[in-house]
Amino acid sequence: MPLPACAIVLPAAGLARRMRGGDKLLEQVDGVPLLRRVAAQALQASDDVAVTLRPDASTRLSVIADLPLHILTLTDADEGMATSLRAGAAWAAKMPVNALMIALPDMPDINAEDFRELIVAQAQNPDHCLRAASAAGEAGHPVILPRAFFSALQDLRGDLGARDILRAHPPHLHPLSGQRAITDLDTPEDWAAWREGRG
Question: Cystine design at 7: which of 91, 97, 122, 141 (Cβ 3.0–4.6 Å)?
Answer without folding.
Answer: 97
